[in-house]
Amino acid sequence: MLSARKPGAATPHTPSSPESSETPVPPHGPERIAKATGQEVNGVFITLFILAYIGLWIALCTPASVTLSLRVADLDPEGKAGSLSTIAGAGAFCALVANPVFGRLSDLSTSRWGQRRPYILGGMVLGFGALLVMGTAPNLFVLGLGWCLAQMLFNAALAAATALLPERVTDRYRGRVSGLMGMTTQIGIVSGTFLVQFTGTDNLWMFVAPGLLGLVMVGIFVRYLREVPRSRAELPRLRWADIPRSMWINPVRHPDFAWAWCGRFLTWTGLSFLTTYKAYFLMDRLGYTAEEASPVLFWSMLILATATTVSSFTAGWLSDRIRRRKVFVAAASVVFACAMVVVATAQSTEMFLVGVGISGLGQGMYMGVDYALVASVLPNKDTEAAKGMGVFNLSTTIPQTISPVLAPLFLAIGGDANYSALYIAAAVFCVAGAFAIRLIRGAR
């Protein structure tokens, strides 16, 4: 028997049966969203989106790469190495969980402000508050708590922002936007490091300035972004079981997504060996002291950032032109492998920097196209884009956690500090990542 509709009830998407209340409405692709919001993804949209993405990385990467370690050294000068490792590890775990979980929550949001805007802006504002906690922390416990909150909140914003690529950008332009997104991490690191030179390293402003700059950049984009609020009838019911499920996508049902995930996981494991141990390589292999290694590390970071920026945009643009993604991502993994071999055999600073430069070219090529590739094989991209991109981002964060566990196994081969074995292993991981990408069938 049909029941009467209550006054004021939503008409277009009111379910006709209990079962239908669990089923989302038909897909909302980029063209339909553009029509519903009246907002095309044009040059202004892309520019503000990329600037917001850079702002997020400035706020997150500045403490991760510079100011967190300085604050730890100030609070615990004797045991700073162990304390930093503990706090950084706790923060990495929080980031690992927060990205897919908050991504799924934004997928299910029925806020009148939209699905993505509340999480992007809310994560940024509250994350800025966490930076203030870090800057004023009286002890290591409070500092660690602040960093864990910052990781959770900034990753909530990142999860919602990343979902805009498959949700709002058509396949025709995804390579170019993906290429620009691939540049943002390195730009964020370099910008934040440069900013700290003006704020100083012994006051609250080294936390406030990067966070405030990021907040302004994100705020401008959120003010510009238009969304159509979703009603509860359009979305599945939110249950507690959605929290653990948000971290899992069945690889048997979605093999193309699984191979894309594995390809990035393997390649980023190899890359993590380079980024994590490059300082020790300079000291143990090339004989630098910690003080002498500092300027070399700065130049290596600058070379890496430059190479990544150039190759990321170029690869993204070319992939749009020829309508192919897999060849660029697989080729990037091979370039990574070549870079690892160069570093493994380097006996001079010049060869080390050459290897880093080649690595930057591979990293840019990979990140410049990889987001576009995974967007094309993302399961349920029209209704669960943030969840899918959040799960995919685990393929980047997990290697940063396990590489310090795996690396000592290779370093111990044949004696102490065998960096050749470590970086040859990294090359093998990268080649395996290239093979994984080749197994994708649902994208060119």
* Count of strand segments: 0
Instruction: Describe the largest sheet.
Output: none
- Radius of gyration over C-alpha positions, nearest whole angstrom: 22 Å
Give the uncertain stretches in residue-range form: 1-27
Q: What's the mean pLDDT score?
A: 84
The chain-level structural class is mainly alpha
End-to-end span in angstroms?
A: 50 Å
Choose one word for the global shape.
Answer: globular
Estimated share of beta-strand residues:
under 5%
- Please tally the helical runs, counting DSSP H or I stretches of 4 or more residues: 15
The H-and-E topology, N to C, reads as: HHHHHHHHHHHHHHH
Fraction of residues in H or I helices = over 70%
Structure description:
The protein has 444 residues and is mostly helical. The chain has 15 helices and no strands. The chain has helices spanning 30-37, 43-75, 80-107, 117-136, 140-162, 164-168, 171-199, 205-224, 242-245, 255-284, 290-322, 326-345, 349-376, 385-411, 419-438. The longest helix is centred in the N-terminal third of the chain and has 33 residues, at 43-75.
Feature tags:
single chain; mainly alpha; 15 helices; 74% helix; disordered N terminus
